[in-house]
Amino acid sequence: MLFLIQKDDLNKYLESSKVVNYNYPEIQEKARELASDQGQIETVKDIYHFVRDEIDHSLDIGSCQVTCRASEVLKEGHGLCFAKSNLLAALLRFMGIPTGFCYQTLTHEEGFVLHGLNAVSLDGKWFRLDARGNRADVDAQFSMERESLAFYPTVEGEKDYPYIFSQPDKRILKIIGESKSPEEVMKTLPIFLTW
Description:
With 195 residues, the chain is an alpha/beta fold. It has a single domain (5-188), classed as C8orf32 fold, CATH 3.10.620.30. It is built from 6 helices and 8 strands, in the order E-H-H-E-H-E-H-E-E-E-E-E-H-H. A hairpin with a 2-residue loop joins strand 4 and strand 5. Helix 1 packs across helix 4 (81-94), helix 2 packs antiparallel against helix 4 and helix 3 crosses helix 4. The chain is globular and about 45 Å long. The mean pLDDT is 96. This is Transglutaminase. InterPro entries: Papain-like_cys_pep_sf, Transglutaminase-like. Pfam families: Transglut_core.
Protein backbone atom coordinates (compact mmCIF):
# COMPACT_ATOMS: atom_id res chain seq x y z
CA MET A 1 0.00 0.00 0.00
CA LEU A 2 1.20 3.51 -0.85
CA PHE A 3 2.42 5.73 2.00
CA LEU A 4 0.23 8.84 1.76
CA ILE A 5 1.59 12.35 2.28
CA GLN A 6 -0.69 15.13 3.57
CA LYS A 7 0.26 18.35 1.73
CA ASP A 8 -1.67 20.94 3.77
CA ASP A 9 -2.93 21.72 7.26
CA LEU A 10 -5.80 19.39 8.20
CA ASN A 11 -8.29 22.28 8.39
CA LYS A 12 -7.76 22.92 4.66
CA TYR A 13 -9.34 19.52 3.96
CA LEU A 14 -12.61 20.77 5.45
CA GLU A 15 -12.96 23.98 3.42
CA SER A 16 -15.69 24.80 0.93
CA SER A 17 -14.57 26.17 -2.42
CA LYS A 18 -15.86 27.02 -5.89
CA VAL A 19 -15.94 23.33 -6.89
CA VAL A 20 -16.23 21.71 -3.45
CA ASN A 21 -19.26 23.89 -2.84
CA TYR A 22 -21.02 22.34 0.13
CA ASN A 23 -22.60 25.70 0.90
CA TYR A 24 -25.34 24.69 -1.56
CA PRO A 25 -28.52 23.53 0.21
CA GLU A 26 -28.84 20.49 -2.09
CA ILE A 27 -25.40 19.23 -1.04
CA GLN A 28 -26.22 19.74 2.63
CA GLU A 29 -29.59 18.04 2.29
CA LYS A 30 -28.08 15.01 0.52
CA ALA A 31 -25.26 14.73 3.08
CA ARG A 32 -27.75 14.76 5.96
CA GLU A 33 -29.95 12.23 4.16
CA LEU A 34 -26.98 9.87 3.70
CA ALA A 35 -25.51 10.37 7.18
CA SER A 36 -25.62 7.25 9.31
CA ASP A 37 -26.71 7.20 12.93
CA GLN A 38 -24.12 4.44 13.42
CA GLY A 39 -21.17 6.84 13.39
CA GLN A 40 -18.64 8.53 11.17
CA ILE A 41 -17.26 5.42 9.47
CA GLU A 42 -20.73 4.29 8.37
CA THR A 43 -21.47 7.83 7.18
CA VAL A 44 -18.34 7.83 5.00
CA LYS A 45 -19.24 4.39 3.68
CA ASP A 46 -22.81 5.38 2.81
CA ILE A 47 -21.77 8.65 1.13
CA TYR A 48 -19.02 6.86 -0.81
CA HIS A 49 -21.47 4.20 -2.03
CA PHE A 50 -23.90 6.90 -3.12
CA VAL A 51 -21.31 8.76 -5.23
CA ARG A 52 -19.80 5.54 -6.61
CA ASP A 53 -23.10 3.83 -7.44
CA GLU A 54 -25.76 6.52 -7.93
CA ILE A 55 -23.71 9.17 -9.76
CA ASP A 56 -22.78 7.84 -13.20
CA HIS A 57 -19.38 8.23 -14.81
CA SER A 58 -19.97 10.50 -17.82
CA LEU A 59 -18.09 8.27 -20.26
CA ASP A 60 -19.91 5.13 -19.09
CA ILE A 61 -23.28 6.63 -20.03
CA GLY A 62 -22.09 8.41 -23.17
CA SER A 63 -22.95 11.87 -21.87
CA CYS A 64 -21.97 14.90 -23.95
CA GLN A 65 -22.16 17.19 -20.91
CA VAL A 66 -19.18 18.17 -18.74
CA THR A 67 -19.81 18.66 -15.02
CA CYS A 68 -17.36 19.87 -12.40
CA ARG A 69 -18.76 21.64 -9.32
CA ALA A 70 -20.12 19.30 -6.65
CA SER A 71 -23.59 20.88 -6.81
CA GLU A 72 -23.64 20.47 -10.60
CA VAL A 73 -22.56 16.81 -10.39
CA LEU A 74 -25.30 16.09 -7.85
CA LYS A 75 -27.94 17.88 -9.94
CA GLU A 76 -27.00 16.24 -13.26
CA GLY A 77 -26.27 12.82 -11.75
CA HIS A 78 -22.97 12.22 -13.54
CA GLY A 79 -19.38 13.35 -13.90
CA LEU A 80 -15.88 12.26 -14.81
CA CYS A 81 -13.68 10.89 -12.01
CA PHE A 82 -12.55 14.42 -11.10
CA ALA A 83 -16.11 15.73 -10.86
CA LYS A 84 -17.22 12.75 -8.79
CA SER A 85 -14.30 13.34 -6.43
CA ASN A 86 -15.47 16.96 -6.01
CA LEU A 87 -18.92 15.72 -4.98
CA LEU A 88 -17.55 13.11 -2.58
CA ALA A 89 -15.32 15.75 -0.97
CA ALA A 90 -18.19 18.24 -0.64
CA LEU A 91 -20.56 15.75 0.99
CA LEU A 92 -17.94 14.48 3.43
CA ARG A 93 -16.51 17.90 4.28
CA PHE A 94 -19.98 19.19 5.07
CA MET A 95 -20.22 16.33 7.59
CA GLY A 96 -16.93 17.49 9.16
CA ILE A 97 -14.79 14.71 7.66
CA PRO A 98 -11.43 15.85 6.20
CA THR A 99 -11.27 14.83 2.53
CA GLY A 100 -8.53 15.43 -0.01
CA PHE A 101 -7.66 14.76 -3.64
CA CYS A 102 -5.24 12.17 -5.01
CA TYR A 103 -4.07 11.32 -8.52
CA GLN A 104 -2.72 8.50 -10.64
CA THR A 105 -1.21 8.42 -14.12
CA LEU A 106 -2.83 5.55 -15.97
CA THR A 107 -2.90 4.06 -19.45
CA HIS A 108 -5.76 5.41 -21.57
CA GLU A 109 -6.29 4.40 -25.18
CA GLU A 110 -2.94 5.05 -26.93
CA GLY A 111 -1.23 6.91 -24.11
CA PHE A 112 -1.49 8.05 -20.50
CA VAL A 113 -3.87 10.30 -18.61
CA LEU A 114 -4.41 11.52 -15.05
CA HIS A 115 -7.09 9.88 -12.92
CA GLY A 116 -8.59 11.52 -9.83
CA LEU A 117 -9.74 10.00 -6.55
CA ASN A 118 -10.06 10.97 -2.90
CA ALA A 119 -8.41 10.40 0.46
CA VAL A 120 -10.39 10.57 3.69
CA SER A 121 -9.10 11.05 7.22
CA LEU A 122 -10.75 8.97 9.92
CA ASP A 123 -9.38 8.29 13.40
CA GLY A 124 -6.21 10.20 12.51
CA LYS A 125 -5.39 8.02 9.50
CA TRP A 126 -5.75 8.71 5.78
CA PHE A 127 -7.12 6.14 3.37
CA ARG A 128 -7.97 6.43 -0.31
CA LEU A 129 -11.38 5.89 -1.90
CA ASP A 130 -12.15 5.85 -5.61
CA ALA A 131 -15.76 6.70 -6.43
CA ARG A 132 -15.23 6.47 -10.21
CA GLY A 133 -17.97 3.87 -10.49
CA ASN A 134 -17.73 0.14 -10.95
CA ARG A 135 -18.23 -1.80 -14.18
CA ALA A 136 -17.19 -5.23 -15.49
CA ASP A 137 -13.47 -4.38 -15.28
CA VAL A 138 -13.59 -2.06 -12.25
CA ASP A 139 -14.32 -3.15 -8.67
CA ALA A 140 -13.52 -0.36 -6.20
CA GLN A 141 -14.75 -0.98 -2.66
CA PHE A 142 -14.92 0.84 0.67
CA SER A 143 -12.20 -0.40 2.99
CA MET A 144 -10.18 1.12 5.80
CA GLU A 145 -8.02 -1.98 6.18
CA ARG A 146 -7.12 -3.03 2.65
CA GLU A 147 -7.18 -0.45 -0.12
CA SER A 148 -9.52 -1.37 -2.99
CA LEU A 149 -9.32 1.23 -5.76
CA ALA A 150 -10.67 1.26 -9.30
CA PHE A 151 -7.17 1.12 -10.80
CA TYR A 152 -3.57 0.48 -9.81
CA PRO A 153 -0.49 1.29 -11.88
CA THR A 154 0.72 -1.97 -13.40
CA VAL A 155 2.59 -1.05 -16.58
CA GLU A 156 5.67 1.05 -17.24
CA GLY A 157 4.84 4.75 -17.29
CA GLU A 158 1.88 4.50 -14.94
CA LYS A 159 2.29 6.19 -11.54
CA ASP A 160 0.60 6.37 -8.16
CA TYR A 161 1.14 9.81 -6.56
CA PRO A 162 1.34 9.67 -2.75
CA TYR A 163 0.21 13.26 -2.16
CA ILE A 164 -3.12 14.27 -0.67
CA PHE A 165 -4.08 17.76 -1.82
CA SER A 166 -6.69 19.92 -0.13
CA GLN A 167 -7.92 21.29 -3.48
CA PRO A 168 -8.25 19.78 -6.96
CA ASP A 169 -5.45 20.34 -9.47
CA LYS A 170 -5.92 23.76 -11.12
CA ARG A 171 -4.80 22.58 -14.55
CA ILE A 172 -7.47 19.89 -14.53
CA LEU A 173 -10.16 22.35 -13.42
CA LYS A 174 -9.16 24.71 -16.25
CA ILE A 175 -9.38 21.94 -18.85
CA ILE A 176 -12.76 20.80 -17.56
CA GLY A 177 -14.03 24.39 -17.63
CA GLU A 178 -12.91 24.93 -21.22
CA SER A 179 -13.95 21.56 -22.68
CA LYS A 180 -17.17 21.00 -24.60
CA SER A 181 -17.46 17.25 -23.92
CA PRO A 182 -16.06 14.53 -21.64
CA GLU A 183 -14.13 13.15 -24.63
CA GLU A 184 -12.44 16.54 -25.12
CA VAL A 185 -11.48 16.57 -21.43
CA MET A 186 -9.89 13.14 -21.78
CA LYS A 187 -7.94 14.19 -24.89
CA THR A 188 -6.52 17.35 -23.29
CA LEU A 189 -5.80 16.16 -19.74
CA PRO A 190 -2.18 16.28 -18.63
CA ILE A 191 -0.30 13.02 -18.46
CA PHE A 192 1.60 13.67 -15.24
CA LEU A 193 0.94 15.54 -12.03
CA THR A 194 3.03 18.63 -11.32
CA TRP A 195 2.90 20.72 -8.14
